[in-house]
Write a structure and sequence with these properties.
The structure is a homodimer of 561-residue chains. Chain A has 561 residues and is α+β, with helices and mostly antiparallel strands. Chain A has helices at 58-77, 132-145, 162-172, 174-179, 186-195, 207-213, 226-232, 234-240, 259-265, 279-286, 343-353, 360-372, 412-436, 449-453, 455-465, 477-489, 496-503, 515-536, 547-560; strands at 6-12, 16-23, 29-36, 55-56, 87-94, 99-102, 123-124, 182-185, 253-256, 272-274, 277-278, 293-298, 302-309, 322-325, 332-339, 382-384, 401-406, 443-447, 469-471. Chain A has a six-stranded mixed β-sheet with strand order 14-15-13-12-18-19, with helices on both faces. Chain A has a five-stranded mixed β-sheet with strand order 3-2-1-5-11. At the A-B interface, helix 11, strand 17, helix 18 and helix 19 of A face helix 11, strand 17, helix 18 and helix 19 of B. Strand 17 (401-406) of chain A pairs antiparallel with strand 17 (401-406) of chain B, so a sheet runs across the interface.
Chain lengths: 561, 561
């Protein structure tokens, strides 16, 4: 009998991090441990005067690694035949863009005496929106001088991203900016810390973070030019030289577990650690992403991930968040799209409409029951899923929600269903954009709690998108994806694709489209697109004077059927 | 000291009728009595298989008159100095169009043995919508042959009106149709019954009912021509000869109280009874309608009533429900417009959004508190008030509701406020149509419980319409209007205008527009009109691609102010 081998994936989320220990032969999960970040509110440092501010303490990342990995090793030791030296490698993913300022040795300023407790010295969490003015200025500057840097990120730079945040730090907390030798993404910081490679000059950098958030591309020589940055602020141009000019995929080894860390987690020194990446990208790998399969990670918002062969030269998918070679699978172009709000819309609706004092999951379950009893088109309602703006394909945060078709008899179940359908229409719009750009979509693999818990949602998505909806077998796809890179780093699989074949899969239950419902939804989708284009696309004026009557006609048909 | 004189107004509503006994000198109210109709559900005969059906038993009208009038006389007799012979006249109004089939003597078929309990033989209540197919066919027929009959009622014939209902009776209950010698409006039936003038040939007919609902106009010789009716069905053409060719305003005397009725209500025989009319029209008179003052009767829907001098030849206000000389004040053109749903929208919203198990009035009070605390524009929301279609100015029941501008933070108070504002924008649209058609609007007199109970609503209406909002002094404006016609019939005032001056008034509190709020609402109204025209007007395509951004810009300004 062959000796079993294991890999550990460590996944840093918004409120906690988790470690997953899996068998590299088949991805089966032996141990899992979750560590809630101790600092701030549910792990986030907030500022009651500024709702845009969201920071994290980098010390929580270190503590989290030590606690989680030690816990899964401890759990696994109780299983007959497991020994820590069978762990071949570790992979790590984090949220992003979540950059933090470090000193010349790569040590977080937040963990120095001088800046302890200073919010600007912490990790700037992905959803920190304090830098919206800087983001707009970066977009305007790039457009003005015709710089190519936005070509790979949908044409609009975001307040959630690397340069916006660093520039905002310079503008509002110059002492921190000046004390920072460099800035590193959380997904680079953690692997560097556990492998003793903190020095910014030699710290391995993730192509995923660099390419999707820092405008890094080999075709223009890495990060944006000094000249471009000087146009924003000369001090940003000066920082560029202290950052990096190389970034690599996660099938590369970042380094090896140092003695101190290894001892504290109960593993041998020298275990290989893969280069980090973002959670959605590792999640896509853990869900078995491959050409033709769109991986949809459904949470408060969605990430819609695809890969295209690297041979697809000149591939251009306008309106998506990023197009970066190697950001998901090492040999393919990684494509990231997304919807700004999905689970968030359901939760907002549930809190607004559920009258029995229920909230959160219970309210959603109650609305789901009512909505699932209805037929497509029967409510006469149509909604746009833009309560938090539109990420793909319009890339416009200044859009808002819309509900049309209400009567005096419209019920909360009908409204909830219309919102679920609206997110499905948004999903279909993304799929159409991929397809018309030459990236075929044959099926969708869904991950995340909502996909697992709501057959109703999956049926609606299958019918609206007219595609089979699969559910990832693992409910820990991000951590599993990280473990896959750990397995590759440890040499248990020669390629990521081989590791995926062995370690990932989808559940047996597949949600397939119903022909009649799909037909009704095609009629409704035409109405969605008219509204989408009328309200979302500059200069487009599709006629809307028959929209309400078209909805009533579909309603009449649906109710008589 | 002059002997006091009194008049009685009898107002037939949807669920009950009421009598009001007032002093003709100043309109002060001495006695009031409400009689809930005993038949059906809250006075309405329903059919669980057909939600469009709504009928009433004409016997309830007779019983109601006897009970109410007897009660107010009994109450008044307890007041020192009152004597029944001081009652100079009675006025009557009813809902409409509420026609009922009668035999050759004018006796309701519903009150004959053969048709007792037959729904088609009852009074067809105004809100019975069983005849929508017939209404559409009448509109199509009139348009096809270029008949002028729709010119005075907004260009579209309604399922709520006289001919639609009679034709539907012919199509679905021919036995009733053939047994009917004639059809009479409830507002003609009651005065005829109490004055012994039931015979259809000599029964006085109301110009209000005839002009607004039966396509009656002197300019085309009364009712629609036999030829026109033959195009619908020859049997309708045959009926025409058994109907009427004269209809008069309510300042005319219909007849005098007959002995039997007089005895049962405790009044002397021979008290003059005025020709009847519809409740909204008498309500406008009771609210003191005069040129320049729009009377807004706010209930589940609204009636927006105006008068224009009879000298306004060629007056044409497109999109309103009717334009009939003498239908409100005898010497003026009566103009009726309306909003299909106002109170109904608030109630729907309250039932949908109020989570504490409150309902109806309590829920509305709770939402009103939350909405009143907000400032115009601060929610970023905009709604259309079309949950029940649009009566004026689009005359289109196939329109529906719309809400735009939602975020993940939108609250129920914000939504409720947006709906209140939407009804105010709808009110402004009606006012603008009057003004641009040459009927100036200087002020608005509001009646109905919502207007009296909600200062919040009145402030919003004043700010949105940029006009002073007054509240009718009497909260029984319809019954007061009927009493005014009773006073004129009895000779206590020579003209209706003189009676109005003496007997009506508005409350001291006037809601005047706030300049800053009115300015914000003007910006918001421009957005409302863009949505109104885009979704409501065939062939109009105003650009909507900046609507969400305009709402966000107003929101930003409102929140920073």
């Amino acid at each position: 009998m062959k000796t079993k081998r294991y890999a550990i994936g460590v996944d840093y989320g918004t409120n906690s991090c988790r470690a997953l220990l899996v068998d590299v032969a088949d991805g089966s999960e032996l141990a899992m441990h979750v560590f809630p970040y101790p600092t701030g509110e549910a792990g986030i440092i907030l500022d009651c005067r500024d709702p845009n501010l969201a920071r994290q303490h980098p010390g929580d990342y270190i503590e989290g690694f030590l606690a989680c990995v030690a816990a899964v090793v401890r759990q696994a030791r109780k299983i007959r035949g497991f020994s820590p030296d069978q762990v071949v490698g570790i992979g790590i993913d984090t949220t992003g863009s979540t950059p933090l300022p470090v000193d010349a040795k790569g040590w977080p300023l937040a963990m120095t005496k001088r800046f302890a407790g200073n919010p600007a010295a912490q990790a700037w969490l992905w959803k920190d929106h304090t830098s919206h003015a800087e983001a707009a200025a970066i977009t305007a500057h790039a457009r003005k001088i015709g710089a190519p840097y936005l070509a790979k990120c949908g044409g609009v730079y975001s307040s959630e991203w690397f340069w916006s945040k660093i520039w905002h730090c310079l503008n509002t907390a110059p002492d921190v900016f000046h004390a920072a030798h460099a800035w590193v993404e959380a997904c680079d910081f953690v692997p560097a810390y556990v492998t003793g490679k903190l020095s910014p000059a030699s710290m391995p950098r993730s192509i995923c973070a660099a390419g999707h958030k820092a405008m890094f591309a080999t075709q223009w020589g890495g990060l944006p030019s000094e000249k471009f940055l000087r146009g924003l602020d000369p001090k940003l141009a000066a920082l560029r030289g202290r950052l990096y000019d190389r970034a690599v995929p996660s099938d590369q080894v970042a380094g090896f577990l140092i003695e101190d860390v290894a001892r504290r987690v109960g593993l041998p020194q020298g275990v290989p650690v893969a280069v980090g990446a973002f959670d959605a990208h590792h999640g896509a790998v853990g869900a078995g992403i491959r050409p033709g399969a769109l991986v949809k990670i459904i949470g408060t918002s969605t990430c819609d991930m695809m890969v295209a062969p690297a041979t697809a030269k000149g591939l251009d998918v306008s309106g998506i968040c990023g197009l970066v070679p190697g950001s998901i699978l090492p040999d393919m172009i990684g494509l990231e799209a997304g919807q700004s709000a999905v689970g968030d819309i359901f939760l907002w609706c549930a809190n607004l409409l559920c009258p029995e004092g229920r909230s959160g999951g219970k309210a959603i379950a109650c609305l789901t029951r009512e909505a699932a009893a209805l037929t497509p088109g029967a409510s006469g309602l149509m909604a746009l899923d833009w309560n938090n703006g539109n990420r793909t394909i319009l890339v416009d945060p200044m859009l808002s929600g819309l509900l049309i078709g209400q009567t005096l008899h419209t019920t909360r179940g009908e409204i909830f269903r219309a919102l679920v359908e609206a997110t499905a229409f948004g999903a279909r719009t993304i799929i159409q954009r991929f397809v018309e750009s030459g990236v075929p979509v044959k099926e969708v693999v869904n991950c995340g709690g909502i996909a697992e818990k709501s057959p109703f949602l999956m049926h609606v998505y299958a019918d609206v998108c007219n595609l089979p909806m699969r559910i990832s077998r693992s409910s820990q796809t991000c951590a599993l994806g990280a473990a896959i890179f750990g397995a590759v780093a440890g040499g248990s699989h020669r390629t990521v694709a081989a590791a995926q074949r062995a370690m990932t899969g989808t559940k047996a239950l597949v949600y397939r489209p119903d022909r009649a419902r799909a037909r009704t939804y095609s009629e409704l989708y035409a109405i969605y697109r008219d509204l989408h284009d009328a309200f979302g696309k500059t200069g487009q004026h599709p006629p809307l004077d028959d929209i309400m009557k078209r909805l009533i006609a579909i309603r009449t048909q649906a109710r008589s059927g």
